[in-house]
Amino acid sequence: MLEISNLAKQFGTMQALDSVSIQVPPGQFVAVVGCSGAGKSTLLRLINRLVEPTSGAISFDGQNVSLLKGHQLREWRSRAAMIFQGYNLSPRLDVLTNVLVGASTSIPQARRLLRLYTKAERLRAAAVLDDLGLVEKAFERAERLSGGQQQRVAIARALMQKPKLILADEPIASLDPLNARVVMETLRRINVELGITVLCNLHSIETARMYASRAIGLRQGRLVFDGPISALTDEATSEIYGGTPAEAESDALSEAA
Ligand SMILES: Nc1ncnc2c1ncn2[C@@H]1O[C@H](COP(=O)(O)OP(=O)(O)O)[C@@H](O)[C@H]1O
Ligand SMILES: [Mg+2]
User: Sorting pLDDT into bands at 50, 70 and 90, what band is 245?
Assistant: First the structure.
């Protein structure tokens, strides 16, 4: 269980997140929705500890995430794996090596630097790639793959970390509709089949409706919606985005484009 209480983050005078409290039981697929600047990325970064909170607390399975340091912090970062809009792969390295980077927190630094992976590690990376339908790309340079394939490589790398939580920050914002669908289906599969909790920032309410069981709506750093996806009515949507529901949808779509 992920428990976030009264979490706040201020950048200078900008209140990026304002006293947000949520609890996420294991195995949920949560869409985090809201306009650009609403605080979605800040929320995920706070959970992963890429950003330190101004106040409030984060705990996971009873462990206070906010206090972790050193090795324990590195371990938490791999348990709460991030997926970014821009994939963050090493473009010139092959796909298998990119995936092996995900195993790195458990590998001694010297071996990591020299990229010396054991047979067992390489086999696991290949198995993860196989599971995501990418094993035939294992020895291709990452940059030669389509955007959707690269994002799936990033998901494979995240799976190498044996995550409890996937924090996906607009994972499909750079993809065409077909690739976006394949990536969202992949996230759904790892959620359903592996039971990994997914928190996914999305611009499009439509996508949230298709894949998430629960939505969290942020507006100017404040939590303005938290409920089952079925409760995300037009009225709720306009509360999150402002304006009329129709405007909100088209705003969300144009921001995603
Ligand atoms: N590192 C930062 N320094 C200063 N301001 C930031 C920083 N990160 C985010 N912000 C500000 O915090 C607010 C929320 O940003 P963000 O979490 O990126 O929103 P979203 O992901 O919903 O678009 C925005 O006003 C943004 O400009
Ligand atoms: Mg963002």
Answer: very low
pLDDT in tens, 208-229: 999 999 999 999 999 999 999 9
Partnered with residue 20 across adjacent β-strands are 7
Ligand 2: centre distance to CA 139 (Å): 32
14, 180, 183 from 175: Cα distances, Å:
30, 5, 9
Atom from ligand 1 closest to the CA of residue 38: 22
Question: What rounded mean pLDDT belongs to the chain?
Answer: 92
3-class secondary-structure state, position 142: helix
Q: Which domains does the chain have, with CATH numbers?
A: 2-256 (3.40.50.300)
Residues 58/7, Cβ–Cβ less than 8 Å: yes
Pseudo-torsion of CA 146, 148, 149, 152, nearest 10°?
160
Contact 136, 94 (CB under 8 A): no
Give the nearest ligand 1 atom to 17 CA.
Answer: 14
Give 67-122 pLDDT, tens digit per residue.
999 989 999 999 999 999 999 999 999 999 999 988 877 777 777 777 788 999 99
Tell me which residue has its CA closest to atom 1 in ligand 1.
Answer: 11
Q: Is the pLDDT of residue 182 over 80?
A: yes
Which of ligand 1's atoms lies nearest the C-alpha of 9?
A: 12
Q: What is the DSSP letter of 175?
A: S
